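User: If you would, consider this record:
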Amino acid sequence: MYRFLLFAAGVAAGQSFERDLQPLFRKHCYNCHAANVRIGSLDVETHAGLMRGGNQGPVVVPGKATASRLYLTLTGAMEPVMPMGGAKLNESELAVVRAWIDGGARAGAAGLGWGGNVLAAGRGGNVVILGASERVLGTVGAVRAVAVSADGKYVAAAGRLETRVWEVATGREVSAVERGADALTVGVDGRVVAVERRPLRLGDRVVEGMDDGRVRVLRASDMAELAVLGTLGAPVTGLAFSSDGLRLAVLREDGSVRIEEMQ
């Protein structure tokens, strides 16, 4: 039997920076405003960089696209018109940018780890310890993966260009390397190993997050479907079993987290 236990609300659903904005910026803007270029000190590769702005100050006013330098320069309503020297965004692409800003300019959520009594998730560039009182442990540009050591002592997170490890009790950063990863593990000694991204497996079960917000439970031997968990909603961007394998945490792109009891 699979039983839903808890739902912890995150940010409201809507346009996601990682899903909706990054592909546009990668296509039109990275030549001048990627994290390793930053002309005008503007980095549009990460949510944190974009919200920080550049030499001219903030470029996004959450909730107000028509007051945001980003949107105004992309539409040609403000000089200099962007992208400079490149193909302009079409109407549908501009609509995505406007909808994201008007919707609050939120970061999506991705990456989930569970070890001991510690559950951690990536939200935009922040790595958050989840619970009754949430705590930001540290930052990594556009979190792709999160892992927690089996004893809950360490949390590791990776983005495209960096991987960091923190001690949970103190919040102290214990290591940082300029190398990203799509999936990783962290040992009880705080050492990180990048691993190949695979479906999450525990014993004879494989769980698979779906774009419609639900989770499929499959039998590992023949990948036959055993159950479908959850309700329709934002895409699943992170899954993690508890240390005893009896519970499954499910992270959605909107930042919400729920716990399923696995029996």
